[in-house]
Request: fold
Amino acid sequence: MKNDGLLIVFSGPSGAGKDTILKRLLETNADYRLSVSATTRAPREGEVDGKDYHFITKEKFQNMLKNDELLESAEYCGNCYGTPSGPIRSWQAEGHDVILEIEVQGGSQIKTKCPDCVSIFILPPSMEVLEQRLRGRGTEADEVIQKRMMRAQKEIEEAVHYDYCVINDTVEKAVDEINQIICAEKHKVYRNADFIERMLNHA
Ligand code: 5GP
Reply:
């Protein structure tokens, strides 16, 4: 019998490199499942509806909230974001590790609702590098970048509430460290209690 998959929460300021890290992580392990969030934000160039996000209206978002279809939700720089609860439980029950890439308010809601989730905070090597990365994207106006830098400061203050932090110096190193964290979590005795019990009952 397969254990339920882990629920893994990734947070970190916009520009910390979460997307790149997660893309690589998913390439290296076909068993992971990435939750596709719902958002009221407009798509950026190249973003695909249903793949990067479910891009929905404010009204639809409010309806999802009202109908309890979101595992967590938050407002971020004027837009709403939320995790559709539907796929999460079934993926976990199938033994897949489920990855949520969410900001800190959502991370805190998940920790309360699902205390055995694994939470990982991705940090940039420095605030200077963070700003360079945000500007380098070339997708956001100056005012938005200033907003995101202020928000980044607030987000980093919340890192202390996470189980692990990983500094994104290089993507390869960060992915390697995350794989090690996930591996260690899977070997926690309490996550393998059923296996141990079955073995003892068999003796
Ligand atoms: P972006 O607009 O850059 O794609 O995302 C802005 C922030 O929203 C990022 O920190 C991202 O992790 C977070 N985010 C994306 N999806 C969700 C979600 O479903 N819930 C929450 N709470 N945050 C999300």
In short: Residues 14, 37, 41, 72, 74, 76, 81-83, 101-103, 105-106 surround guanosine-5'-monophosphate (CB under 6 Å). The beta strands are 7-11, 33-34, 38-39, 54-55, 70-76, 79-84, 98-101, 118-123, 164-167.
